[in-house]
Design goal:
339 residues; 42% strand; globular; single chain; Outer membrane phospholipase (ompla), Chain C
């Protein structure tokens, strides 16, 4: 309507000016008002065209980035569940995936993390499980934007190794504190879900030659549409002093960890009927000596709360003790509903 309005005014003005000129002027004086009419019409038309162009530009910008509370997202159920849990002071929420893989097969297990394991008695079959939760430390008055504490434990258990008394080969601990922001905006047709920025510590809780740990500042963002989820995360490693002695309790346990574990990760998730697929890729962004990993998770619901999980991993960083050892792992088990 705003585009048509200048032309409506222009037509009305032109018609009234023409009638007035015929009633009050002689035939000899008609030429001058008609000339003025023509100039004014051209000016009004130009002004109308400029307004139309501005409106079109505004529409283009609005179409690219707009407030959106209607578009459905593959993460709607998960985020709604988090909001409901925050209203319950006795509840905690999932941070990352929570799963148990009773049986996995790993191609090249590292025995460094446990004194009872050797290259001769280590078992390629082991169980793997992960427990991950987050708690709000501060929340804004509305929504669930605020500061959170998250904790993730991932353990690798030689469950079938009776020769070595079924020890835990490796356990990784990952506490972090972060700010989480949510917004109801669409960007190029994809719904913006969450943004996080914070501090992450990752360690295997060991000492001496078995110790592996590092600290990072990280930022991550999640977009989605009705069927797909996109995740991007990058980090800055907080530097540590070089060890003067390998057994020194202070200093950097693993100065080259970014060359293997990576400097960023990209995630992609998709619903395929009742199945859900989640892929996580890490990369060191070094084109000369490129390293990284890929993890593929395929799930199928067996109840409102649980899913069957098939997990495949290939690359570096399957665990901290294996950060510089290429591994291939496949396992099957169960996880809490995550997406």
């Amino acid at each position: 309507m705003s585009v048509l309005k200048p032309f409506v005014f222009m037509a009305a003005f032109a018609a009234s000016a023409s009638v007035f000129g015929q009633a009050t002027s002689s035939d000899r004086d008609v030429a001058q008002p008609q000339s003025m009419e023509s100039n004014e019409q051209e000016s009004a038309a130009q002004s109308g065209a400029e307004e139309a162009s501005q409106d079109e530009n505004s529409i283009e910008v609005i179409d690219i980035i707009k407030r959106d509370t209607i578009t459905e997202s593959a993460l709607d159920n998960r985020l709604e569940g988090d909001k409901e849990a925050l209203d319950n002071v006795f509840a905690i929420t999932q941070h990352r995936q929570n799963y148990l893989l009773p049986i996995t097969y790993v191609s090249n297990p590292n025995t460094t993390g446990n004194d009872d394991l050797t290259d001769e008695n280590v078992d390629n079959r082991e169980a793997k499980f992960q427990v991950s939760a987050k708690l709000p430390l501060y929340l804004e008055d509305t929504g669930f934007d605020g500061v959170y504490f998250g904790f993730t434990l991932t353990s690798f258990w030689q469950l079938y190794n009776s020769e070595a008394s079924k020890p835990f080969r490796e356990t990784n601990y990952e506490p972090e504190i972060f700010w989480q922001e949510t917004a109801d905006y669409s960007v190029l047709g994809y719904k913006f879900n969450t943004f996080q920025v914070g501090f992450n510590h990752m360690s295997n809780g060991q000492s001496g030659l078995k110790s592996r740990s590092w600290n990072r500042l990280f930022a991550s963002i999640v977009f989605s549409d009705n069927d797909d989820i996109y995740y991007l995360k990058t980090w800055y490693r907080i530097p540590e002093d070089e060890k003067e002695d390998p057994l020194d309790p202070t200093g950097d346990d693993n100065p080259d960890i970014e060359d293997y574990y990576g400097r960023m990760e990209f995630g992609y998730g998709r619903k395929i009927g009742a199945f859900k697929m989640l892929a996580l890729l890490r990369n060191n962004l070094d084109f000369d000596e490129n390293r990284g990993s890929i993890q593929l998770d395929l799930t199928y619901p067996i109840s409102d709360r649980y899913e069957v999980l098939l997990q495949y991993f290939n690359g570096y960083g399957d665990s901290l003790i294996d950060y510089n050892r290429s591994q291939e792992r496949i396992g099957i088990g169960f996880q809490l509903l995550f997406l």
